[in-house]
Write a structure and sequence with these properties.
4-stranded antiparallel sheet; 5-stranded antiparallel sheet
């Protein structure tokens, strides 16, 4: 009889611990997802000797254009990209926007940085993806943020 009670108590404790862990994961999961896609977080893509880093600067600020800080680095290629022509901002509902401007280093050289600006999408999307189509690359570089 004592053996059966220990087994039942052990199963009960295991079940309670499992439920507590499941509850913790349910509470923590949204925060983990938010931390991974926080608009302030820098995202990076390296291909064909060129690194592109993007940080969302002002997503969702009322009355202000949406701005993305972009840094391009290489040791082997000329960075002659026209980012106003090669970048697009796509919303989670499929709308696509072209930049309204680039404030930064002109085309050329091995290091460029500046800010891409976009008109504010209305209605506000739940997520956006910045795509940069680089010359000679089959697929665009993609950077995604949850809002």
């Amino acid at each position: 009889m004592a053996f059966e009670n220990d087994g039942a108590t052990g199963r009960r404790r295991w079940w309670m611990a499992s439920m507590a862990l499941a509850g913790l994961l349910m509470v923590a999961a949204p925060w983990v997802g938010w931390a991974q896609t926080s608009p302030a977080a820098e995202q990076s893509s390296s291909e064909r000797g060129v690194t592109v880093k993007v940080t969302a600067k002002s997503i969702g600020v009322p009355g202000s254009p949406w701005e993305f800080a972009v840094v391009l680095d290489t040791h082997s290629a000329d960075l002659s990209d026209d980012l106003v022509q090669s970048a697009t901002l796509t919303t989670d509902d499929g709308r696509t926007f072209k930049p309204t401007g680039w404030l930064g280093a002109p085309p050329g050289g091995h290091h460029r940085e500046g800010v891409l600006a976009f008109d504010v999408p209305a209605p506000r999307p739940a997520a956006v993806e910045l795509r940069i189509h680089r010359p000679g690359e089959a697929a665009p570089r993609s950077f995604r943020w949850q809002l």
